[in-house]
């Protein structure tokens, strides 16, 4: 199971379509107040974050995951505009496992989902 914390419709469709084609179970969480509960309930092998989503508060969630002994081992990956160096650094400081540029995320999506 992979949980996606994504509210961008284009990326949401891209991810869910690829996951379905690969037979990878996926859950897209769009409610900011449900993200941590969803991660606890689903116990995903990977959580994917749209790091540019202001509404979903990814930095807040990443910091909460890192601070929670039961969740800090969950693998995390975020994608972001490659020119947004401040967000990339903030995600690393918040404890994200891996950060990819949007283009790299898109080109490696199948690999990411099957390794998830």
Tell me briefly what this model is:
The protein is an alpha/beta fold and 116 residues long. It contains six helices and five strands; from the N terminus they run E-H-E-H-E-H-E-H-E-H-H.
What would you note in describing this structure?
This protein has helices at residues 9-22, 35-42, 58-67, 85-94, 102-107, 109-115; strands at residues 2-5, 26-29, 46-50, 76-80, 98-101. It is an alpha/beta fold and 116 residues long. A five-stranded parallel sheet has the order 2-1-3-4-5, sandwiched between helices. β3 (46-50), α3 (58-67) and β4 form a beta-alpha-beta unit. It is globular and about 35 Å long. The model has no long low-confidence stretch (mean pLDDT 94).
Low-confidence stretches: none
Query: What characterizes the major β-sheet?
Result: 5 strands, parallel
What oligomeric state do these chains adopt? single chain
Task: Please report the total strand number as a whole number.
Answer: 5
SSE layout and pairing:
Blueprint: E1 2-5, H1 9-22, E2 26-29, H2 35-42, E3 46-50, H3 58-67, E4 76-80, H4 85-94, E5 98-101, H5 102-107, H6 109-115
Parallel strand pairs: 1-2, 1-3, 3-4, 4-5
Helix pairs in contact: 1-6
